[in-house]
């Protein structure tokens, strides 16, 4: 089911913390209460291992089997509203903006349109860079992204940002929390995560999930968190 621009559904009262888990590559599950957002689900047609759960909203950055498995997040009575391109949307008080960019993911001939997503979920400003392949964003795009609380970014190379490029861009965007993705996919730079953490000057242990509220981000300035894959 495709999302319509500025579609407004019943009001949600958030009382629970946000729970964030990784399903591998750039496949994410973000949940507050019974509201679930899926990001870049891995298709059953991908060579990557995938998983299934029900989502209310699904964001797709590029049209590639490693990112467009919307069928994997339709389960248990949930049929997600799917967003797969630039635009502005409001779905169950989740405000979403998609911004156009470019990807050369998996060295795809001619490249692919990549959508960067900025969305506000439970009062937290989240940015997902998707399969972005350049560390130089136009000034207009940076302005549109605004203040970022949590930044998800690719660090594995193979047509996306290299570890060094990823950290350089992360610093320029000034997020409170940085979460690297894509370092576990085939074709990724060897030791991509290790290289990224060295660039960041961080020693971080991967966690199965992040559970946080808006207040938990207070005082953070470019901190790094690593999510272990839940498959």
Question: Concise description?
Answer:
The chain has 231 residues and is α/β, with parallel strands linked by helices. It contains three helices and 13 strands.
Q: Ends: how far apart?
A: 26 Å
CATH class: Alpha Beta
Estimate what percentage of residues fall within beta strands.
25-35%
* Number of contiguous helices: 3
Number of domains: 1
CATH superfamily: Ribonuclease Z/Hydroxyacylglutathione hydrolase-like
**Major sheet: arrangement of strands:** 6-7-8-9-10-11-13
Q: Helix share of residues?
A: 10-25%
Taken from the alpha-carbon principal axes, the silhouette is globular
* Secondary-structure-derived class: alpha/beta
| Model regions low in confidence, pLDDT < 50 over at least 5 residues | 4-13
- What is the CATH third-level topology name? Metallo-beta-lactamase, Chain A
What's the average pLDDT?
92
What is the count of β-strands? 13
